[in-house]
C-alpha cells in the first residue's frame, strides 16, 4: 500500500493515527521515510509523549488533535488538528478548547516508535549535529533496507565529517551485503574489512553463513577476512578498554581506601567504621542535591522535619556536586572527629580492640542512617557533565571515570603534600609513631590525633561523594567497600601512602584484566584474592616494608 | 591485675576451685538441662537454641586460642566452621533420599540432593559418594578443614606473615571461599547451600529427642575442649604460645620455631571450629556460603572480646550471652537491636577491656580498695 | 629565688604498686643535678613523673612557679621541659632530619634561629649530619642516643631531663657530651665558631638551662654535676653538693 | 693451633646501599672471651645480627660455627646449635614472670610436641633457683618481666642466656644501665664463663673492657671492618683507635 | 477482644533490609486495616514482628520461635529464596503456614508455603514473549549470583531456544559440564560495584542492533549497573533492559532519568488505574502518615508488587480462615486450595491447588518520575512452579 501522492506528511500522520491495526499503522508511517519536515518530527515527539489525542465529534467523526498552549482552570487547552496544523473548530465554527481527560490518547508501542524513528532518522541525515547524523545513518544501515541506499550514497558525497563518513560507508556496505549481485557483495565485504567496525560483526557472520550455504567460496573467504579484521580490532579495543577500566577501577579503590590509609595505615586504628564514613559522604551529597532541588523531608525517630530546597534547575542545579564535594569532606570529618573524641582516643594503645569498638560504631551508624533516611537506597543523579562519555576508536571513556582518575591524582598529591611538606604533616607522622614521645616534645597530641582522624574520615566522606555517582547510596553502602579497602591498604604496606597508590592501581588492573580474560567477574575476584595471598607470601608486610631494627615492631 | 608486691595466691587452691566449678557446670549442661527437657520443663525450642549457642561457644574458643593466647587475630575462623558444617551437610543431604522435594514430585529416582537434579544431574558425582558413610563424613570434618588450615598456615607462617597482614589474609581466604561456594558448579549447593535435612544416624529431625542428643553431644564436646585447652595453656606449649603473642621475634632467639607452634595452634583451632560447625549444621538446619562471609568471623571475634580475651570462660560466656541477646532482641526490638548491640560493643571495649569475666575481679578489687582504706 | 623545679612528697603508683614514696627534690636554674641510685629504685619513675608520662598520686611538682602535675605532658614540654628518655624513643620512620625538626616545629622555631640551633646540634654530634636522610629506626643504639639528645636540645628547654644519656655511647662522645653539659650550664661559649656561638646563646638562654641527669656512671656525674641526689626504694636517701659524693657514700647508697 | 669455633670470612652487609659491614674477617677460638669495641654505628650489633641469623650477609660471605655454615640457617636453628644472644636493648618476655622467662630459656628440646609434655624436674628447679640468685631477682621471681626496671631486665636477659647454656654467647652491651659495682660483677661472671663457653662481648664502658679483656684479645671495629685487634693496652694506645673511638680522655 | 498471633518474618537489618522493610510496613498496614473492620473470625490480628537480619540460620531460629514459642497462626515473610529454604523444614516439621510474596525460581511446592510470589512463567517468560514480539533478536542474560537468577536464566535459555532464537544470539556466556548446560548468563556477586567490563561487553553485543538485556540483578547492584550503562551511551532505544528485580520500591534508589524507557515485568504496578489500586495507595499513604511504628519512613513511599502480594496474601489467608471457620492450618490450607479469589490492587488473584496464585501480569516502561507506564498486560496467568525442562526441545 502506498499513500496517495496528494497527501501531505501531516495528513499521512493523521491517517496513521486513525489506523487501528498496529502493523498497518507501521506501514503507513513507513511511507513517510525519506520525506517529511520538522513538523513530522514534532508530531512524533508529541505522539511518544502521549500528547496526541483523537477527538470524536457528536456525529462520530474522528479527528486527530494535538493539545497545546496554556491550560485554563478546567484543564482545557487549544487543540491543533494533526492533518493541517490549524485549530480545530467546533460545530459553531469557533476553536474548541479541550482537556486531555475527555479525549482518547493515541496509543503507541515499541515497534511503532521504531518506525517513527526510522522516519526521523532520515530527517536526521541532514541534522546539524554529527552525533545525530551518525545515529541516523546507523539505524538505516542496520535495517539493511535497499531502498535507503540512494539517500545514503547521496549523503556520502555531501558529508564533510570524517566519523559520519565512516558510518555512511559502513551503512552502505551493510545494505549492499544484501545485494543480489555477488560482485557488489564482495566489494561490500572488502569495504567492511577496511572499516572493521564492531557493529558489522553479526552482519558479516550472516553473510558468511549465507555464502557457505550457497557454496560461494570466494564470498565466504572475503567474509572470513573481514571478520578477522573486525576481531583484530576488537582485541585492540578490549586491550585499551581494559587498561582504562583497570585504571579507573584502581582510582576508585584508591579514592575509597585513602582515608583508611590514614586512619588505619598511619594511626593503626583498625577502623571498621570507614565504610560508614563513606556512606555519610554519599548521604551528604544526597542532601546537597535535594537542597539544590526541591528540598527533602525526613522522619527519623518518628519526628518529621523538612529541609527546604532552593528549586534550582539546569546548570545551577547540576553544580550541586561541586558544593557536595567539600561538604561531604567536612561532614564526614566532623563525624570522624566526634568519634575520635568519644571512642577512638581511648584505644590508641589497644589497636585490636579498636576493631571491635569501631565495628560497634559501624553498626550504630548503619542503624542511624537507616532510621534517618530509610532502609531503601536513595536517588543521587549524576550531573550531565559527569554522565556522558568520549568514545575513541570504540573505547568508551566515561566522564565520571575520567573525573575519578583525575580526582584521585589530585587528592593523592594533596595528601602527599600535607604529610611530607607541611609542619602539620610532620607532627602527624611523629604522633602516630610514638604518641608518648611526641607529647614529651610538646606536640599537642590530642589535637593532632583529632585532626588526623578527621582528615582520614573526611577523605572517606569525599570518596562517598564519588561513589554516589557510580553506585548505590544506602545505609549499608559502606559494607561493599570495606573488605577491598583493607585489602588495598594492607597490600600496599600499612602506613605507606605510596604503597596504597600502587596497590590500588595494581588490584584494579588485575581485577579488570582477569575479568576480561576469564569472562567471569566472580572467578576474576577469586583470582585476585588468591593473587593477593600469594603476593603476601613474597612480601609478607606489603609492597613497601618500612623496616625498623627493633625486635618487636 | 595482681600486684607484684602481694604474695602470689596459691595456685593449687585456685585450681581446685576451678575444677569444682567446671564440674558443676558440666553436669548441668550435659545431664540436667537435657533431663529438664525430657521432663517437659525446658522447651524443645530452647534445646536446639542452646545447642546452637554451645556450638558458637566452641567457635569462640577456637578464636580465642588463636587471638587471645597466640596473638593471631584470625578473621577467617568461620571458614573452618563452615567447612565442618559442609562436610556434615553432605552426609545429611545424602540421608534425605526419598524424602526430598524432587522425590516427592517423583523426579528423583536416584536419591540425589535436590540441587543436583536441578542442575540436570542424574547420577551422584564421585566425590559425593563416600559421604553416605557417617564415619567417613566425620573423618572429613577433621581432615578437610585441617588440611586447608595446614596448607594455608604453612604458607602464611613460613613467610612470616603476621599482625594485621595475617588478619586480612585470613579474611581474604574466607571471602574467597565464600565466593567459590556461591558458584553452582562447585556442586555444593551454590547460594542455597544445604538445607531441608530429614534425618541423622537414622533419627528423624521431626523427633525432639534427636535435637536433645545433638545438644548433649555438643555439650560434651564443649566440656572436653574446655578442659583440653585449659590443660594446654598450663603446659610449656602454652607458655611458648603466649611468648609468641608478646614477642614473636624474641622467641626465635630462644630456639623455638615460632612458625611450627603457630601452625599447630592454627590447625588445632581449625579443628575445633570445624567440629563446632559439624555440630551446628544439623541443629540450625542450614549451611550456605553466607556463613563463610568475613562478617561471621568478625562476629566470633566480638564474642571473645565481650566475654574476655585470653581466658577460656570468656569466649564461652561472650558467645552465649551475645547470641542470647540477639535471639531476644531480634524479637523484642526488631528495629533497633543492632543499635543496642553496637552500643554494647563500644561500651564493653571502652569500659570493660577485660570483658565480662573481668567484672567479678573488678568488683572485688573495688571492695578491697574500700576495705583497705578503712583499715 | 625559688627553685626552678621543686618536687615535694611525690608519690607515684604503677599498676597498683607504690613506686615513689614521697620524693623531695629541687633544681635551680643553671644547675646540673645528678639523680643516682641502684637499679629499680625509681629514678626513671621520678623522671616520668616530671615529664608527665606517669601521673602522680599525691604530692606536688612546681616548675617555674606553675603546678606541673596538673598539666598534660605536652603542656609541660611547652612550659620548658625537654627530655631524653631511657630507651631513646626515636620516631623510627621519620628521617633523622625530621626527628630533629619535630622539636623545632612544636616550639615555633624557624628561619635563622632554627638553622643556628641545628648547626649547634650537628657540631655536638657530627654523625647526625651524615645521616640526615636515613630513618631514625635503623640507626645504631649509640647513634639513636645522640639523636635523642640533639632532638631534646632543639625544643629549647629550660630544664633538660636525661635518663642515662651515656648508655651505649662511645667514650669520645661521652666526653664530648660531658663537656657540652658543663658548657651549657656555665653559659660558656665554645671557642670554635661564631655560628655555634650564636646557637649556644639561643640554646643556653643566658644560663637558664638546668639539667637533671640520671646516671650510673659515677665519674661522669662527678665531672658534670653541681649537686646530687641518691634514691633507694622510692625515696631520696641522701643529697648534697657533688663534692660530698665520696666513695663511702657511693658504697653505702649506690652499691648492692 | 685449635681450629676456631667461629670463623667469619669476607662478610659484608649492605642496607639500602649503606655498607654496615665491609669485608669483615673474624675468628674466635674455642673457649675464648673476645671483646669487641668500636664507635657507634661501627657495625657491632649488625655483626651479631649476622651471626645470630637476624640478618643474612651479602652473598659471598661465609660464617661457620664449628663446621656448620650459619648463613644457611635461620634464627631458631642457629640458637639450637648453640649460639645464644643478648640484645643491646633488653628484650624479655614482658607478660611472663621472671621465673617463666628462665623456664622458657632453659636448655632442652624445643619442639612443639616436646613442649606439650615437658615437666620441670628437680634438677631444673635447682638450676633455676641458682640462676635467680645469680641475677639477684630471686625475690622478684613471680613478677612480670615487663615490670622490671631497665637494669633488672638486663640482668634477666643475661640469666636467660645462661639458662640456655649455649656454646657461644653473643653479649651486646651488658653493662649499659648498671651501676659500677654491678658492672664489675657482670665482668666477673663473664670471665668465669670463659673457657667452658666462648664469648663475644660488645661494650663501650672502658673500665669494664679493661676488666674482661685482661687476658684476652680486643677487636676494634670501624666502619664495618676490623680496625685493629690485640691486647687491651695495644688497642688503647693505638692512635687511630683514640682518634675514632676513645677521644682525648683518660680512657 | 481476643487476638490471633500472626508472624512477620523479614530482614529489618543487614543487606536485605533494603527490600524487606517495606514488606513489614505493608503487612502492619494490612493488619490495621483488617482489625479496623473487626479482624479475622472476630479476633484481632496481633502481629509478632521478628528480624531475620539477613542471616539464614537466624531465619530458621526465628521461624522456630514463631511457631513453637509464639504459636502464630500464620507467618508472612521471607524474600530471598535461601531464607525460604532455610525456614521450610521448620514449617513442615511444625505444620505451619508461610505466605511467600516475592518472585522466585519455582522448583518447589510445599504444603506449608503459600506462594503468592510470581513464578517464572508469571514474569520472565511473558517478558521474553513481549521482546520477541517487538522484534528483538539477541538477548544478553545478566544476573546476581544466586539461585533465582540462575534458575530463571536456565529456564529462559530453554524458552528462547524453543522460540527459535539461535544459541549464538544469547549473550552472557554458557557453562557446560558433561554435556549439560549448568549455567547460562553472566553473574556478579552481591554487592558488586564495578560493571565496566560487563557493560563494555553488552555494548559490543548490541553494536549491530536488535539486542536486549534480560536482567535478574538483585537490589543494590542495579544502581552501579545502570549508571555504567548510561555512561556508556546505551539507552532503552539502543538496547533495552528488562529487569525482574526492580520494582517501584527499588526504583527509588535508581537514577530514574537515566533509566527512562527500560522495562519491568510484574504482577502489579503502582500506576494501575483501578479504583481498588487507588484506594489501596491512598489508604497506605494515610496509614503511613499517622503511623507511630518505630523505624517507619513516611516520605516518598511507593507501592510495588511484593508489597501487594503480601497484602493479597493476608486477605487470602483471611478469606481461607473464614471459609474454614478455623485457624487450623490443615483447614486453612484446604480452603486455600479450593480456589479462593480476592480483588486486590493488581486485579483479581485466585488461589490454586498447587499453593500458587493465578494473577495478571503487566509489562511496564519506566518513566522519569519513578513509575512504570503499563504497555502490555496478560490476564489470569496460572502460576507454575515446575518449569525447568518444560520448554526443552
Ligand atoms: N608496670 C610496672 N608495674 C609494676 N612495677 C613496675 C612497673 N614498671 C616499673 N616498675 C617497678 O618500679 C620500680 C622503679 O622502676 P624505675 O624504672 O623507676 O627504676 P630505675 O631506678 O630507673 O632503674 P634502672 O636504673 O634500672 O633504670 C622498679 O622496681 C620496677 O620494677
Ligand atoms: N636494618 C638496618 N637498616 C638500615 N641500616 C642499618 C640496619 N641495621 C644497621 N644499620 C646501620 O648499620 C650501621 C651499624 O649499626 P650497628 O647497630 O651494627 O652499630 P653498632 O656498632 O652496634 O653501634 P652502637 O655502638 O651504637 O650500638 C649503622 O649506621 C646503622 O644505621
Ligand atoms: N526469590 C528471590 N528473589 O530470591
Ligand atoms: Mg631507669
Ligand atoms: Mg649496637
UniProtKB/TrEMBL annotation, chain A:
Keyword Membrane: yes
Gene Ontology MF terms in the entry: transmembrane transporter activity
GO BP annotation list: amino acid transport
Compartments in which it is found: Cell membrane
Keyword field: Amino-acid transport, Cell membrane, Membrane, Transmembrane, Transmembrane helix, Transport
GO terms under cellular component: plasma membrane
Chief location category: membrane
Source taxon at top rank: Bacteria
Mode of membrane association: Multi-pass membrane protein
Family statement: Belongs to the binding-protein-dependent transport system permease family. LivHM subfamily.
NCBIfam families recorded: urea_trans_UrtB
Listed name of the protein: Urea ABC transporter permease subunit UrtB
Organism: Nibricoccus aquaticus
Encoding gene, per UniProt annotation: urtB
TrEMBL record, chain B:
PANTHER family (UniProt xref): HIGH-AFFINITY BRANCHED-CHAIN AMINO ACID TRANSPORT SYSTEM PERMEASE (PTHR30482), SLR1201 PROTEIN (PTHR30482:SF4)
Compartments where found: Cell membrane
Pfam short name (any one): BPD_transp_2
Predominant place of localization: membrane
Protein's name according to its UniProt entry: Urea ABC transporter permease subunit UrtC
Alphabetized UniProt keyword annotations: Cell membrane, Membrane, Transmembrane, Transmembrane helix
GO molecular function: branched-chain amino acid transmembrane transporter activity
NCBIfam families reported in the protein's UniProt record: urea_trans_UrtC
Membrane topology: Multi-pass membrane protein
Lineage: Bacteria, Pseudomonadati, Verrucomicrobiota, Opitutia, Opitutales
Gene Ontology cellular-component terms listed: plasma membrane
Chain segments annotated as transmembrane: 20-41, 53-72, 78-99, 134-157, 164-182, 213-232, 253-280, 300-325, 337-359
UniProtKB/TrEMBL annotation, chain C:
Pfam families for the chain: ABC_tran (PF00005)
InterPro entries assigned to the protein according to its UniProt record, in alphabetical order: AAA+_ATPase, ABC_transporter-like_ATP-bd, BCAA_Transport_ATP-bd_LivF, P-loop_NTPase
GO MF annotation terms: ATP binding; ATP hydrolysis activity; branched-chain amino acid transmembrane transporter activity
Limits of the ABC transporter domain: 5-256
Domain of life according to the entry: Bacteria
Gene Ontology BP annotations: L-amino acid transport
Keywords tagged on the record: Amino-acid transport, ATP-binding, Nucleotide-binding, Transport
Family: Belongs to the ABC transporter superfamily.
This protein's name: ABC transporter ATP-binding protein
Originating organism: Nibricoccus aquaticus
Source species taxonomy: Bacteria, Pseudomonadati, Verrucomicrobiota, Opitutia, Opitutales
UniProtKB/TrEMBL annotation, chain D:
Keyword Transport: yes
Stored PROSITE patterns: ABC_TRANSPORTER_2
Alphabetically ordered keywords of this record: ATP-binding, Nucleotide-binding, Transport
Cellular component, GO annotation: plasma membrane
One GO MF term attached to the UniProt entry: ATP hydrolysis activity
Keyword ATP-binding: yes
Pfam families listed in its UniProt record: ABC_tran, BCA_ABC_TP_C
InterPro entries associated with the record: ABC_AA/LPS_Transport (IPR051120), ABC_transporter-like_ATP-bd (IPR003439), ABC_transptr_urea_ATP-bd_UrtD (IPR017781), BCA_ABC_TP_C (IPR032823), P-loop_NTPase (IPR027417)
Annotated ABC transporter domain residues: 6-248
Protein name (database record): Urea ABC transporter ATP-binding protein UrtD
Organism name: Nibricoccus aquaticus
Source taxonomy: Bacteria, Pseudomonadati, Verrucomicrobiota, Opitutia, Opitutales
Amino acid at each position: 500500500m502506498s499513500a496517495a501522492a496528494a497527501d501531505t506528511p501531516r495528513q499521512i500522520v493523521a491517517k496513521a493515527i486513525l489506523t487501528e491495526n498496529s502493523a498497518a499503522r507501521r506501514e503507513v508511517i513507513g511511507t513517510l521515510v525519506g520525506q517529511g519536515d520538522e513538523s513530522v518530527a514534532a508530531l512524533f515527539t508529541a505522539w511518544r509523549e502521549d500528547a496526541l489525542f483523537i477527538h470524536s465529534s457528536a456525529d462520530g467523526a474522528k479527528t486527530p488533535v494535538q493539545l497545546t498552549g496554556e491550560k485554563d482552570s478546567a484543564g482545557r487547552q487549544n487543540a491543533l488538528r494533526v492533518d493541517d496544523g490549524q485549530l480545530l473548530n467546533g460545530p459553531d465554527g469557533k476553536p474548541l478548547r479541550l482537556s486531555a481527560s475527555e479525549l482518547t490518547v493515541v496509543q503507541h508501542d515499541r515497534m511503532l516508535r521504531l518506525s517513527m524513528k526510522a522516519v526521523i532518522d532520515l530527517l536526521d541525515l541532514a541534522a546539524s549535529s554529527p552525533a545525530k547524523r551518525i545515529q541516523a545513518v546507523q539505524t538505516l544501515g542496520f535495517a539493511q533496507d535497499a531502498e535507503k541506499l540512494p539517500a545514503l550514497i547521496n549523503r556520502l558525497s555531501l558529508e564533510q565529517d570524517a566519523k559520519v563518513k565512516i558510518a555512511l560507508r559502513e551503512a552502505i556496505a551493510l545494505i549492499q551485503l544484501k545485494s543480489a549481485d555477488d560482485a557488489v557483495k564482495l566489494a561490500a565485504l572488502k569495504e567492511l574489512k577496511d572499516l572493521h567496525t564492531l557493529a558489522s560483526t553479526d552482519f558479516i557472520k550472516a553473510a558468511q553463513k549465507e555464502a557457505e550455504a550457497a557454496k560461494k567460496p570466494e564470498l565466504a573467504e572475503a567474509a572470513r577476512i573481514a571478520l578477522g579484521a573486525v576481531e583484530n580490532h576488537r582485541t585492540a579495543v578490549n586491550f585499551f578498554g581494559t587498561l582504562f577500566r583497570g585504571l579507573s577501577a584502581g582510582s576508585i579503590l584508591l579514592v575509597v581506601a585513602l582515608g583508611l590509609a590514614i586512619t588505619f595505615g598511619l594511626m593503626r586504628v583498625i577502623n571498621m567504621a570507614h565504610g560508614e564514613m563513606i556512606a555519610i559522604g554519599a548521604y551528604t551529597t544526597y542532601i546537597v542535591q535535594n537542597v539544590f532541588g526541591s528540598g527533602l523531608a525526613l522522619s527519623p525517630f518518628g519526628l518529621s522535619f523538612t529541609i527546604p530546597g532552593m528549586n534550582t534547575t539546569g546548570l545551577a542545579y547540576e553544580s550541586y556536586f561541586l558544593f557536595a564535594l567539600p561538604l561531604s569532606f567536612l561532614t564526614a570529618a566532623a563525624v570522624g572527629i566526634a568519634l575520635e573524641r568519644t571512642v577512638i582516643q581511648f584505644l590508641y594503645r589497644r589497636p585490636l580492640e579498636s576493631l571491635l569498638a569501631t565495628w560497634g560504631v559501624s553498626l550504630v551508624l548503619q542503624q542511624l542512617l537507616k532510621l534517618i533516611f530509610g532502609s531503601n537506597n536513595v536517588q543521587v543523579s549524576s550531573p550531565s557533565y559527569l554522565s556522558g562519555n568520549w568514545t575513541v576508536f570504540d573505547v568508551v571513556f566515561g566522564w565520571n571515570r575520567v573525573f575519578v582518575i583525575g580526582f584521585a591524582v589530585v587528592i593523592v598529591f594533596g595528601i602527599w603534600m600535607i604529610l611530607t611538606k607541611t609542619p602539620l604533616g610532620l607532627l602527624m607522622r611523629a604522633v602516630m609513631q610514638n604518641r608518648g614521645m611526641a607529647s614529651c616534645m610538646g606536640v599537642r597530641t590530642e589535637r593532632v590525633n583529632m585532626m588526623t582522624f578527621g582528615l582520614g574520615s573526611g577523605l572517606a566522606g569525599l570518596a562517598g561523594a564519588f561513589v554516589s555517582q557510580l553506585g548505590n547510596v544506602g545505609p549499608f553502602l559502606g559494607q561493599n567497600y570495606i573488605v577491598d579497602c583493607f585489602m588495598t591498604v594492607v597490600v600496599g604496606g600499612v602506613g605507606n601512602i605510596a604503597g596504597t597508590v600502587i596497590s590500588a592501581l595494581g588490584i584494579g588492573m588485575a581485577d579488570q584484566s582477569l575479568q576480561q580474560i576469564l569472562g567471569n567477574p566472580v572467578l576474576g575476584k577469586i583470582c585476585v584474592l588468591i593473587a593477593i595471598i600469594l603476593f603476601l607470601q613474597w612480601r609478607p608486610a606489603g609492597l613497601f616494608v618500612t623496616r625498623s631494627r627493633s625486635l618487636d615492631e | 591485675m595482681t600486684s607484684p608486691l602481694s604474695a602470689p595466691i596459691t595456685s593449687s587452691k585456685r585450681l581446685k576451685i576451678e575444677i569444682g566449678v567446671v564440674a558443676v557446670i558440666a553436669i548441668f549442661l550435659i545431664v540436667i538441662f537435657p533431663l529438664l527437657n525430657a521432663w517437659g520443663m525446658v522447651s524443645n525450642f530452647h534445646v536446639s537454641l542452646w545447642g546452637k549457642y554451645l556450638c558458637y561457644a566452641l567457635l569462640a574458643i577456637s578464636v580465642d586460642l588463636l587471638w587471645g593466647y597466640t596473638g593471631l587475630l584470625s578473621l577467617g575462623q568461620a571458614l573452618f566452621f563452615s567447612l565442618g558444617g559442609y562436610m556434615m551437610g553432605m552426609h545429611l543431604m545424602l540421608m534425605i533420599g526419598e524424602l526430598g522435594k524432587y522425590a516427592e514430585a517423583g523426579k528423583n529416582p536416584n536419591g540425589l540432593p535436590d540441587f543436583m537434579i536441578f542442575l540436570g544431574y542424574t547420577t551422584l558425582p564421585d566425590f559425593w559418594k563416600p559421604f553416605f558413610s557417617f564415619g567417613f563424613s566425620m573423618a572429613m570434618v577433621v581432615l578437610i578443614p585441617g588440611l586447608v588450615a595446614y596448607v594455608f598456615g604453612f604458607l602464611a607462617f613460613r613467610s612470616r606473615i603476621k599482625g594485621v597482614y595475617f588478619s586480612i589474609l585470613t579474611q581474604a581466604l574466607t571471602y574467597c571461599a565464600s565466593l567459590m561456594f556461591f558458584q553452582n558448579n562447585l556442586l555444593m549447593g551454590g547460594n542455597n547451600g544445604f538445607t531441608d535435612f530429614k534425618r541423622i544416624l537414622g533419627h528423624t529431625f521431626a523427633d525432639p529427642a534427636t535435637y536433645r542428643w545433638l545438644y548433649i553431644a555438643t555439650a560434651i564436646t564443649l566440656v572436653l575442649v574446655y578442659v583440653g585447652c585449659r590443660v594446654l595453656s598450663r603446659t610449656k606449649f602454652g607458655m611458648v604460645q603466649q611468648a609468641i603473642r608478646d614477642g614473636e621475634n624474641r622467641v626465635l632467639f630462644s630456639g623455638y620455631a615460632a612458625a611450627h607452634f603457630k601452625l599447630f595452634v592454627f590447625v588445632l583451632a581449625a579443628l575445633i571450629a570445624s567440629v563446632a560447625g559439624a555440630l551446628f549444621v544439623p541443629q540450625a538446619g542450614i549451611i550456605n556460603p553466607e556463613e563463610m562471609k568475613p562478617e561471621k568471623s568478625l562476629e566470633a571475634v566480638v564474642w571473645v572480646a565481650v566475654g574476655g580475651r585470653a581466658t577460656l570462660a570468656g569466649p564461652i560466656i561472650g558467645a552465649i550471652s551475645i547470641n542470647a541477646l540477639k535471639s531476644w532482641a531480634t524479637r523484642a526490638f526488631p528495629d533497633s537491636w543492632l543499635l543496642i548491640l553496637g552500643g554494647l560493643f563500644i561500651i564493653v571495649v571502652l569500659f570493660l577491656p577485660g570483658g565480662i569475666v573481668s567484672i567479678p575481679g573488678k568488683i572485688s578489687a573495688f571492695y578491697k580498695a574500700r576495705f583497705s582504706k578503712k583499715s | 629565688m625559688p627553685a626552678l623545679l621543686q618536687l615535694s612528697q611525690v608519690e607515684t603508683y604503677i599498676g597498683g604498686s607504690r613506686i615513689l614514696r614521697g620524693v623531695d627534690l629541687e633544681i635551680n636554674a643553671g644547675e646540673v643535678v645528678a639523680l643516682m641510685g641502684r637499679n629499680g629504685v625509681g629514678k626513671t619513675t621520678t623522671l616520668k613523673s616530671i615529664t608527665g608520662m606517669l601521673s602522680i598520686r599525691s604530692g606536688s611538682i612546681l616548675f617555674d612557679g606553675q603546678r606541673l602535675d596538673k598539666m598534660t605532658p605536652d603542656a609541660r614540654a611547652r612550659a620548658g621541659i625537654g627530655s631524653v628518655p631511657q630507651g631513646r624513643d626515636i620516631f623510627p620512620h621519620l628521617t633523622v632530619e625530621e626527628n630533629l625538626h619535630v622539636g623545632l616545629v612544636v616550639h615555633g622555631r624557624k628561619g635563622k634561629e632554627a638553622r643556628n640551633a641545628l648547626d649547634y646540634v650537628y657540631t655536638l654530634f657530627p654523625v647526625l649530619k651524615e645521616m640526615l636522610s636515613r630513618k631514625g629506626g635503623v640507626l645504631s643504639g649509640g647513634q639513636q642516643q645522640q639523636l635523642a639528645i640533639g632532638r631534646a636540645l632543639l625544643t629549647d628547654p629550660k630544664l633538660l631531663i636525661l635518663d642515662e644519656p651515656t648508655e651505649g655511647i662511645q667514650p669520645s662522645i661521652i666526653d664530648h657530651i660531658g663537656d657540652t653539659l658543663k658548657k651549657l650550664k656555665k653559659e660558656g661559649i665554645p671557642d670554635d665558631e661564631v655560628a655555634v656561638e650564636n646557637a649556644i646563646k639561643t640554646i643556653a638562654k643566658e644560663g637558664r638551662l638546668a639539667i637533671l641527669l640520671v646516671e650510673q656512671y659515677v665519674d661522669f656525674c662527678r665531672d658534670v654535676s653541681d649537686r646530687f641526689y641518691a634514691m633507694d626504694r622510692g625515696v631520696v636517701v641522701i643529697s648534697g653538693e657533688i663534692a660530698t659524693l665520696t666513695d663511702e657514700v657511693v658504697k653505702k647508697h649506690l652499691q648492692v | 693451633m685449635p681450629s676456631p669455633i667461629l670463623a667469619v670470612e669476607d662478610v659484608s652487609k649492605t642496607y639500602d646501599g649503606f655498607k654496615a659491614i665491609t669485608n669483615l674477617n673474624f675468628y674466635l677460638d674455642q673457649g675464648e672471651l673476645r671483646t669487641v669495641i668500636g664507635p657507634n654505628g661501627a657495625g657491632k650489633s649488625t655483626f651479631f645480627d649476622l651471626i645470630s641469623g637476624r640478618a643474612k650477609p651479602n652473598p659471598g660471605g661465609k660464617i661457620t660455627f664449628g663446621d656448620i655454615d650459619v648463613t644457611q640457617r635461620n634464627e631458631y636453628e642457629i640458637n639450637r646449635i648453640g649460639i645464644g644472644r643478648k640484645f643491646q636493648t633488653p628484650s624479655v618476655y614482658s607478660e611472663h614472670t621472671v621465673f617463666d622467662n628462665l623456664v622458657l630459656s632453659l636448655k632442652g628440646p624445643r619442639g612443639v610436641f616436646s613442649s606439650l609434655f615437658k615437666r620441670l624436674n628437680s634438677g631444673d628447679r635447682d638450676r633455676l633457683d641458682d640462676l635467680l640468685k645469680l641475677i639477684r631477682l630471686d625475690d622478684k621471681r613471680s613478677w612480670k618481666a615487663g615490670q622490671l626496671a631497665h637494669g633488672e631486665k638486663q640482668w634477666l636477659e643475661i640469666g636467660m642466656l645462661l639458662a640456655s647454656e649455649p656454646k657461644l654467647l653473643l653479649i651486646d652491651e651488658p653493662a649499659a644501665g648498671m651501676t659500677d659495682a654491678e658492672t664489675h660483677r657482670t665482668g666477673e661472671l663473664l670471665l668465669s664463663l670463659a673457657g667452658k663457653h666462648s664469648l663475644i662481648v660488645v661494650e663501650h664502658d672502658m673500665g669494664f673492657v679493661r676488666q674482661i679483656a685482661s687476658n684476652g684479645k680486643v677487636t676494634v671495629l670501624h666502619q664495618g671492618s676490623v680496625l685493629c685487634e690485640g691486647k687491651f693496652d695495644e688497642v688503647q694506645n693505638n692512635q687511630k683507635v683514640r682518634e675514632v673511638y676513645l677521644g682525648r680522655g683518660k680512657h | 477482644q481476643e487476638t490471633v498471633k500472626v508472624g512477620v518474618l523479614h530482614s529489618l537489618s543487614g543487606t536485605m533490609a533494603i527490600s524487606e522493610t517495606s514488606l513489614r510496613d505493608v503487612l502492619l498496614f494490612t493488619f490495621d486495616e483488617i482489625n479496623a473492620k473487626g479482624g479475622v473470625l472476630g479476633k484481632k490480628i496481633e502481629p509478632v514482628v521478628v528480624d531475620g537480619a539477613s542471616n539464614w540460620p537466624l531465619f530458621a531460629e526465628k521461624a522456630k520461635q514463631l511457631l513453637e514459642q509464639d504459636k502464630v497462626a500464620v507467618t508472612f515473610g521471607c524474600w530471598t529464596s535461601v531464607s525460604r529454604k532455610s525456614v521450610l523444614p521448620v514449617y513442615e516439621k511444625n505444620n505451619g503456614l508461610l505466605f511467600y510474596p516475592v518472585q522466585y525460581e519455582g522448583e518447589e511446592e510445599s504444603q506449608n508455603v503459600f506462594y503468592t510470589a510470581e513464578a517464572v512463567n508469571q514474569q520472565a517468560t511473558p517478558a521474553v514473549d513481549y521482546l520477541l514480539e517487538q522484534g528483538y533478536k539477541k538477548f544478553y542474560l545478566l544476573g546476581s549470583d544466586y539461585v533465582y537468577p540462575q534458575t530463571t536464566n536456565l529456564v529462559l535459555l530453554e524458552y528462547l531456544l524453543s522460540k527459535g532464537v539461535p544459541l549464538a544470539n544469547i549473550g552472557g556466556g554458557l557453562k557446560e559440564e558433561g554435556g549439560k548446560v549448568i549455567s547460562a548468563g553472566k553473574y556478579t556477586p552481591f554487592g558488586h560495584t564495578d560493571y565496566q567490563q560487563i557493560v563494555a561487553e553488552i555494548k559490543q553485543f548490541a553494536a549491530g542492533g536488535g539486542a536486549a538485556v534480560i536482567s535478574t540483578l538483585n537490589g543494590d547492584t542495579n544502581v552501579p549497573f545502570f549508571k555504567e550503562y548510561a555512561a556508556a551511551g546505551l539507552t532503552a532505544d539502543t538496547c533495552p533492559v528488562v529487569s525482574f528485580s526492580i520494582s517501584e520500591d527499588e526504583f527509588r534508589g535508581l537514577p530514574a532519568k537515566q533509566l527512562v524507557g527500560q522495562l519491568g515485568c510484574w504482577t502489579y504496578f503502582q500506576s494501575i488505574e483501578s479504583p481498588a489500586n487507588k484506594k489501596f495507595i491512598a489508604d497506605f499513604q494515610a496509614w503511613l502518615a499517622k503511623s507511630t511504628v518505630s523505624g517507619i519512613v513516611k516520605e516518598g513511599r511507593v507501592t510495588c508488587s511484593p508489597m501487594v502480594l503480601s497484602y493479597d496474601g493476608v486477605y487470602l489467608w483471611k478469606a481461607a480462615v473464614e471459609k474454614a471457620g478455623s485457624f487450623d492450618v490443615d483447614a486453612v490450607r484446604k480452603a486455600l486450595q479450593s480456589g479462593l479469589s480476592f480483588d486486590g490492587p493488581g486485579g483479581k488473584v485466585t488461589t490454586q491447588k498447587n499453593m500458587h496464585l493465578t494473577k495478571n501480569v503487566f509489562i511496564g516502561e519506566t518513566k522519569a518520575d519513578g513509575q512504570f507506564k503499563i504497555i502490555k498486560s496478560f490476564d489470569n496467568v496460572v502460576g507454575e512452579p515446575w518449569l525447568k525442562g518444560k520448554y526443552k526441545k
